[in-house]
Amino acid sequence: MAHHHDEFRLNGPEFDELNKKLDRRKFLTKTTLGLGALAFGSIYGASRLFGAEAVGPTPNQSAGTDQDMQEAILKALPHFAPKAKRVVFLFMSGGPSQFETFDYKPKLADMFGQNLPDSVRKGQRLTGMSANQSSLPIAPSIYKFSNYGKSNTPVSELMPYTAKVVDELCIIKSLYTDAINHDPAITFFQTGNQLPGRPSLGAWVSYGLGSDNHNLPTFISLISKNGSGQPLYSRLWGSGFLPSKYEGVQFRGGKDPVLFLNNPEGYDGADREQMLHYLNQLNDVQRSVYADPEIDSRMAQYEMAYRMQTSVPEVMDVSKETDEVFELYGPDSRDPGTYAANCLLARKLLQKDVKFVQLYHQGWDQHGGLPGGIKHQCKNTDQATAALITDLKRTGMLEDTLVIWGGEFGRTVYSQGQLTPTNYGRDHHPRCFTMWMAGAGVKPGISYGETDDFSYNITKNPVHVHDFQATMMHLLGVDHERLTYKYQGRRFRLTDVHGHVVHDILT
User: Fold this and answer.
1) Are 222 and 342 in contact (CB under 8 A)?
2) Residue with the larger pLDDT of the pair 213 and 46
3) Kind of pairing between the strands at 463-464 and 458-460
4) Count of CB atoms within 10 A of residue 339's CB?
5) Domains of the chain (ranges plus CATH)?
């Protein structure tokens, strides 16, 4: 047993006190308890002892400990050949209006100011912001639509650049969600549940599929500095109950893209590797005492941070990009932290095999002054969004990169507040909204799903948020029902207890 004790001994007088705590008696106490538990498990049945279920990646898999089960689940990935190697999700926080972007409703032009028919609303709930209005007057969009591309797809005049790449897009007009307010709706889209505490989309992908570049995080989030509106919070790219090493790392514009990554002033970092070596020794001791798996995550994050000190400055450096590239993404692309600059950075991160990039742009919550507000939002995002599609395609990356655009819900056909011929607002609308996907494995140049003449109810091919999430995972080679994680006695998954792959939009 002395041999085993030596495995935990740290050399040097500074570790004498710790070594005393790992004496022979304590070591024997811990290991006999562990061995005894294993022996009892072999007699009684590990599945009963540890609470693991006799289910797993394959029907014939024998029962084992929770850790065995989880390892088996991960070993089975990917479940089939993936079409997408990486994802970039352009999240328009606040809820973009489908009326001013992609869901063209020409019949509304003759219904200005008329009250929304009860036969359309059907008693559906409203938010507290418009529930007390004496009427719900219909507000047609003041912006024109034209058909573009070989697909002859209608696109708003607010998005001239996106219109040029419309034949690459699969526009889904029949999304719907369970939540009617921002916080639960964004949380629902990003984690599969309206309540905080679940892993985010990127965390599930990182956990299930791992990394293709060990010098950069698997999951990176970017937030536009030229957007404002509904607050964003780190749990949207957090790991929830998964180990913390799977959470997204936020990159920022400026000289410190990752907080606390750079060395303090006056420190050259020459002994950083030695420091990490001793720190890992301390963590090894801590792990042997407490058997806390989060210690492994912490060690992995320390080591990633050390590697990122070299890799992050390289990927953030855009000095080698040509003037033609900056012109493609627009003038804002030269200003770090803007939406355009983040789109360009997203392309660089994808080229470095970062598996999941989440880009947030705030400001789409227009309860009043919508015509001017959404015009401003489109101006800030339209060119760079289309540029990212163009850039990925010309580099051959669109074939295996999934691009997603959209927000947490749509907007109402009726005006919230005063309606005039040139000004109106729109309230939240979870019953139907529009998003698009492009790239790996998605049918290009199509529109999927239909809404009624008021874009109030879905009339064909509804797509729930969980369906959308299941489809995204399917494109990554993951069966959303089989990627689970046991927490507090229950096996959780991104899509909770339902969700279906939308095969009609896949190639």
Assistant:
1) yes
2) 213
3) unpaired
4) 32
5) 2-74 (no CATH), 85-261+318-505 (3.40.720)
